[in-house]
Amino acid sequence: MKETIISTSTTQQLLSLVRASLWQTPIDTRPFTDALTTDSYINWDAITTMALQQTVAVLAITSALTLPPPLLPPKEWQYKAYSFIERNRRTHLLLDSCVAEATHLLKEANIPTVLLKGQAYARTYPTSTLRQCGDIDLYIGEANYRKAYEATKKFGWQSTEEFIPKSKHYGCSLKGIRIELHRLAGILPTPRANQKFREWSTTQILNSQRKIKIDKEEIILPTPIFDVIFVFLHLYHHFINGGIGLRQVCDWVMLLHTHSRSIDHDELEARLKEFQLLKPWQAFTPIAVQYLALPEYECPLYSPKYNKKSEKILSFILKEGNFGRCRASVKPCPKGYWHRKTNAFRQLNNKMLPHLSIDPWRILNTYTRTLCNGLKGICVHILRL
């Protein structure tokens, strides 16, 4: 039988390390002892590469350092691992500092904010520093969007992109950390589902009473049901459009675990149907339960009948890496307008078509919409010639 990426020793070793860190349990050492038996060595370079590609390096190396002596990585690897963990810890401190400072400054400018993703999700892990750092997302809302943009100019925050009044978010940076100021929490592909999500998400965010303190600053978080739907919406959007790493799936798993007693399953199912996310959600659930060890009772709408589909999804995740950076088809953008368009079309096919069997309607909808936008751009280019 042909070996799949899920059954390779490197993948099994990585998943064993990740699970041990997520749940603070002893490491399943069988993938490591099997490797010593069959190959006479453990390929730590391969494990490290995959962990970095999946943005779960801290989870993996933290567990690896606790393996029994015969299975421990080489000393040089351990020194690098401790250095990586320390850098990630310092980055967390910097991110927390930026969240607190940004929230405080915007609050003084009469612009309330709600923290999305990132440092909020990190606090659902056994230790927040186990989560590899990303950027900062603050929900501003439509009414304060331009006001927030103008405020960032006064604060001296560096712009990282052009401000577009109708875009989902505006990017800027504080102390070298990227901050996204969200006008909208997310955008769904169909008008009806998008309108429903927009109305619901605004209510869930603005009416939330959840608060945490970061560097003595009071930070508002969305409601638990918003968090578990939003994290899935975000990871699924990137899965379809560019690729995700295991970190995004771990975020979803940790949120489901943290909010397991707060989520009304009937309401969750109704909302997922409304937003056309129910089938994708169910297709991902076996990954959470069977590969990342989330208890079945903490995984709403889990069903083993989606096992085969979830294996295919996990295989895509492991092959493509975070944001598709490991995809074999990813090449430097060529020079010349028509070469770039041809390359973009090839990339679109390579990203979308392999996922067709997973979610046909959504893939075709996204594929067609992206293709039409590209053709419109070509028409405008030709008319300008």
What does it look like?
- The chain is α+β, with helices and mostly antiparallel strands and 385 residues long.
- The chain has 4 domains: 1-73, no CATH class; 104-221, Beta Polymerase, domain 2, CATH 3.30.460; 223-327, no CATH class; 334-385.
- It is built from 15 helices and 7 strands.
- The chain has helices spanning 9-23, 30-38, 44-53, 57-64, 75-108, 118-122, 145-155, 191-206, 224-241, 246-258, 265-274, 278-291, 307-320, 337-352, 360-384; strands spanning 114-116, 136-139, 158-159, 169-174, 177-182, 210-214, 217-221.
- The strands form 2 sheets. The chain has a 5-stranded mixed β-sheet with strand order 1-2-5-4-3. It has a two-stranded antiparallel sheet with strand order 6-7.
- A hairpin with a 2-residue loop joins β4 (169-174) and β5 (177-182).
- α1 (9-23) packs antiparallel against α2 (30-38) and α1 crosses α3 (44-53).
- It is globular and about 65 Å long.
- The relative contact order is 0.09.
- The mean pLDDT is 90.
Tell me briefly what this model is.
With 385 residues, the chain is an alpha+beta fold.
Q: How is the topology of this model organized?
A:
Blueprint: H1 9-23, H2 30-38, H3 44-53, H4 57-64, H5 75-108, E1 114-116, H6 118-122, E2 136-139, H7 145-155, E3 158-159, E4 169-174, E5 177-182, H8 191-206, E6 210-214, E7 217-221, H9 224-241, H10 246-258, H11 265-274, H12 278-291, H13 307-320, H14 337-352, H15 360-384
Parallel strand pairs: 2-5
Antiparallel strand pairs: 1-2, 3-4, 4-5, 6-7
**Please, what is the oligomeric state?**
single chain
By secondary-structure content and strand pairing, the structural class works out as alpha+beta
Number of domains: 4
User: What's the order of the H and E elements?
Assistant: HHHHHEHEHEEEHEEHHHHHHH
* Average predicted local confidence, pLDDT: 90
CATH class of the largest domain: Alpha Beta
Major β-sheet strand ordering:
1-2-5-4-3
Compute the number of strand runs: 7
Which of globular, elongated, flat, extended, rod-shaped describes the shape?
globular
- Report the portion of residues in β strands: 5-15%
Rounded to an integer in angstroms, the radius of gyration calculated over CA atoms is 22 Å
**Corresponding CATH architecture of the largest domain:** 2-Layer Sandwich
Separation of the first and last Cα atoms: 56 Å
Q: Would you identify the regions where 5 or more consecutive residues have pLDDT less than 50?
A: none
DSSP helical segment count = 15
CATH fold assignment of the largest domain: Beta Polymerase, domain 2
